[in-house]
Fold each of these.
Amino acid sequence: PTMAHSKALLVLENFIGGKFVPCSSYIDSYNPSTGDVYCRVPDSGKEEVEAAVKAAKDAFPIWSSKSPLERSQILNKLADLIEHDLEEFAQAESKDQGKTITFARTVDIPRAVHNFRFFASSILHHVTECSEMPAMGCVHYTSRAPVGVAGLISPWNLPLYLLTWKIAPAIACGNTVVAKPSEMTSVTAWMMCKLLEKAGVPPGVVNVVFGTGARAGEALVCHPDVPLISFTGSTRTAQRITERSAPHCKRLSLELGGKNPAIIFDDADLSQCIPTTVRSSFANQGEICLCTSRIFVQRGIYSEFLKKFVAEAKKWKTGNPSDPTIDVGALISKEHLEKVRTYVKKAQAEGARVLCGEGVDPLAVPPGNQKGYFMLPTVIVEVKDESCCMQEEIFGPVTCVVAFDTEEEVIRRANGVKYGLAATVWSGNVGRVHRVAHRLQSGLVWTNCWLVRDLNLPFGGMKASGIGREGAKDSYEFFTEVKTITIKH
Ligand code: NAD
């Protein structure tokens, strides 16, 4: 690894076959809270991907023949090493992504550590099936084996968190991997590579190629020796990946976007619901696939809800992400900030009203952050269900609040988008929450809470929000190939 001190730029290198290797060309990576270029990321293409796949293929026979216990011990060691450097990782993630240091310290990096520990443990507990046919004198059983080289492609919003959510199960199952993090947030993946050798991960088991989706990502998706691709990102990219991988009939896991509703019935406990819904709307600048962006409030409590919700949203402080008292950091890029702002303008042009945030309240950031990509938590009302703000994923600190009357109506409206990732339901009526949860087209439904996860259980979306699920059993099934064996005695 090199630091080009002359320009004070951080220069990343690919990690292939256990070694850091420079690349012939680089792309700039920005610090979203200042607008400055501070890092150079390899612009890898076919050649680099080819070398990484070869290293992963070469490492597969040895890694796949290790016992789950041996692999588990290595994953635990890696978790310990990341945890030891937690503060350094958190600082890097905050600087690279724009998220607050508090979020990186309490969510991103602890979860990356936990991902390795979780799969280090879960890999020890799987059993396969067996069925007997005494009349035929036969016994059948299943056996599971790692598939080979897994291609892992991850987005910029939760960089190390989501990358390790793929690397951990893939290598725990005995696969080797070639990972391609987002070109906008590559630093923590590179830092993790520096710890692999010390953790005991053999060379070639984890390879990381940095670069854009169009070059490095596609080269991985199209590589004939990569039989499975685990992708988290936008629905549009997933369509492209599906097309490009189709000639090879690759196994795909696709975790995509959302347009997540919160449904708030008139018997909801607002003292819990309001702070949680502000959090579910604006956490990580609204840049979480699970963030709430459509809030349906039953008419009887609509005005009260709105007043309290806006008051709570205004308490969220936007500013320098490295300040631990800040709640909202910078958005990922200038282009993304423009895109999010455009949604607010479109809503206003359609007659919607902005109650707080963008264009309504003054945005004050410290002098050093004037060129950063900041936006205040923004609440929009009087917006039609057909509006692009109610249909498309905005992926920023913007949420729409609308009123509804009946349970039947709100289920229909909540389901009336192309996505189906996560929903929240707020009510004290146990019968109602079960009924509504069953009828929502959503891979996850949280009742009277948000973002409470048990990694054992399936995670993933319906409709345009994805294909496949991740979790203890689900990731194990995705990252292994099953065989049914019949023995006649
Ligand atoms: P994106 O689709 O633009 O990029 C994701 C990754 O794919 C990046 O690494 C990118 O370089 C790569 N990529 C782009 N084009 C590619 C191509 N043609 N071939 C191969 N790889 C390619 O998404 P993003 O903007 O980085 O992330 C935001 C999106 O991710 C949002 O839609 C969000 O909802 C979604 N997301 C989903 C989940 C989930 O678990 N469901 C989690 C986080 C984010």
Amino acid sequence: MTHKVTLIPGDGVGPEIMAVARRVIEASGVSVTWEVVEAGEAVIPEYGTPLPERVLESIRTNRVALKGPLTTPVGRGFRSVNVTLRQELDLYANVRPARSLPGIRSRYQDIDLIVVRENTEDLYAGIEHWCGRDAAESIKLITRPASERIVRFAFELARREGRCKVTAVHKANIMKCTDGLFLECARKVAGEYPDIDFEEWIVDAMAMKLVQAPENFDVLVMPNLYGDILSDLCAGLVGGLGVAPGANIGDEAAVFEPVHGSAPKYAGQNKVNPLAAVLSGVMMLRHLGEAEAADRIMRGVTAVLTKGETLTYDLGGTAGTAEMGEAIIREM
Ligand code: NAD
């Protein structure tokens, strides 16, 4: 069977890492037809927007996309393309696994966590405005349907993957309405899954506990902004952003992308780690039911990491992005 997949190369280092992910997926033996569509800063002069309608149409039609990182200007400029894309396609679940990989030097060797982040609301939706010149307000929108939906997604994922525990992360002691509602929904949904343990942690204590004893956790579910922050923390536990994949899942479409951004200072240097993009491709193949191809890629990745000869700078090596990709293909 041939899969038609939307491919968005992205900004900054995006085109380099996505070229590697594409080559590795093609070498895995799976049949994919890529529909390459451009989004991001570079297309604004041509389309007047960083997210042309044809990008959304392509994902709606193909229902699966592999996406490179897209730049968002800090403190000015256009609204985040990533946030818009997730909202437009109702990709409500952001799934970010953090798993220890062989050969990577990090603080822990046995991490196997999944961060499930609500992906459409909370402060991260960017509903904000100025109040005169010297004050600004941002609205933290939390709704019952979105909260119940994401917690149910986390429990279903836990059940499917044979995991033992779901932990809800919140700050309901301070934000009694918004995070209070999220927590109320989490407790209610947890009651529907008596086979899976449930616990709740306040986000600041959670950050400390993740650094001290990450082995105590399994599936974590939380509102958007906490998920953004804690998933980078979890990436740091297993080797950094260069090895952290992610997925944005909705009922109608799924977009797979590295957790990291466009790393503009490294753009065009053939320097950054392509693994986050490759592992996002592995998640995509599993989503498409191509477990054998996904396993083949993981064998290549594991061999390259274990040998330790062809690694990018972040893993202590001197290899380039493309060279590491070629090494993975050789080992597959
Ligand atoms: P970033 O993730 O792009 O980079 C931060 C640092 O992490 C880099 O300087 C580098 O040291 C390291 N890093 C990132 N990717 C790496 C890789 N593959 N290999 C090795 N090291 C890697 O974060 P930033 O600099 O804060 O953001 C840059 C831009 O990316 C911003 O415009 C931001 O909005 C955007 N962004 C986009 C996404 C997305 O598209 N999903 C996610 C995060 C940030």
